[in-house]
Design goal:
Elements (H helix, E strand, L loop, with lengths): L15 H4 L8 E2 L14 E7 L11 H15 L3 E5 L3 H11 L3 E4 L14 E4 L3 E10 L19 E9 L5 E9 L5 H16 L7 E6 L8 H8 L3 E2 H4 L2 E2 L20 E5 L4 E7 L3 E2 L10 E6 L2
Parallel strand pairs: 2-3, 8-9, 11-13
Antiparallel strand pairs: 1-14, 2-15, 3-5, 4-5, 6-7, 7-8, 9-12, 10-12, 13-15
Helix pairs in contact: 2-3, 4-5
């Protein structure tokens, strides 16, 4: 797909102070970095986060969640943030809230700007995108909004090839996705296609995959397929790790030892210093119905 389909890259930097929401910082809870993580100068900090689309009604509507999301992202400042479910205006607000040195790339799953995105945010101080594209998780991946495997909605991958400005311009890929929530067959076929796509990349360039896979790590063929494609689960590979929680929490308190359906994967040459599931909340309110997963990486 030609790059001119891109609809979302920010044009220039904007002042964060002018965009910030004025809210009192109330009681906060939760953390990310494990106590035993240690210091790793130059590490690449990656986050995957299902944002929960910007609903306008209910107790967890977007306007009341936005200040909590802003605080979490400003605390963590990931270099790469793979998001799922974000709507265009919601992503624009996150762009303003996270800070002036972030941009993002993505396209709606129907091929435009009116549906959910698998957007990738990146810190422009650290990373420069040198190539990007999208493909749909179907038998016709280059056909916008195609959906041939019985999934409830079209699903896609957004990928970017980055140059790491702090590491001599070293290049790496990030792929971000959100697999179908209803069809196991669609999820398994999607995992196969993602693996085949990665197999066609330059093997000397590291790859990081972020996403909501709607499948439990260690307990699903989708997970097995991704690892059979040559990827490593950064959670398992991490030198230090935070407590395990279910990454879908439904806006409820975190569930210890629950199903980890949001993953950060990498090619084997990537070192994972630490990994964590972030349980941040403000006065008991969570930014999303998922918990973000984070990993601190060295590309090799």
């Amino acid at each position: 797909m030609p790059n001119d389909v891109r609809v979302t890259r920010r044009q220039g930097l904007r002042a964060a102070a002018a965009a910030a929401i004025s809210v009192p910082l109330l009681t906060t809870a939760g953390s990310a970095r494990p106590a035993a993580a240690g210091e790793h100068p130059g590490a690449l900090n990656v986050m995957t986060y299902n944002l929960r689309f910007a609903s306008s009604t209910g107790s967890n509507r977007w306007p009341v969640r936005r200040p909590v999301m802003r605080e979490l992202l400003r605390r963590e400042q990931p270099h790469v943030l793979g998001t799922q479910e974000g709507l265009y205006q919601q992503l624009r607000k996150i762009e303003k809230d996270i800070g002036p040195h972030y941009e993002w790339l993505g396209i709606g799953r129907m091929g435009g700007g009116d549906d959910e995105f698998m957007a990738l945010f990146y810190d422009t101080r650290r990373l420069d995108p040198i190539d990007f594209d999208h493909f749909w998780l179907s038998d016709t991946p280059n056909v916008m909004a195609s959906n041939t495997w019985g999934g409830r909605f079209p699903r896609l991958v957004t990928w970017v090839r980055f140059s790491d400005l702090s590491d001599g311009g070293r290049e790496f890929y990030v792929l971000n996705t959100h697999l179908d929530g209803t069809s196991q067959y669609a999820r398994e076929r999607a995992a196969e296609l993602i693996g085949e796509t990665i197999g066609g990349f330059d093997p000397s360039v590291p790859v990081v995959v972020t996403g909501d896979f709607n499948a439990a790590a260690h307990d699903d063929p989708v997970y097995d397929t991704m690892l059979d494609a040559g990827l490593v689960d950064t959670w398992d590979a991490a030198g230090a790790r935070g407590p395990l929680y279910a990454t879908y929490n439904g806006f409820r308190p975190p569930e210890p030892g629950g199903r980890r359906i949001d993953w950060i994967l990498s090619t084997p040459g990537v070192t994972t210093h630490w990994a964590a599931i972030n349980t941040f909340s403000m006065d008991g309110r969570f930014p999303s119905d998922h918990l973000p997963v984070q990993a601190s990486l060295a590309l090799g």
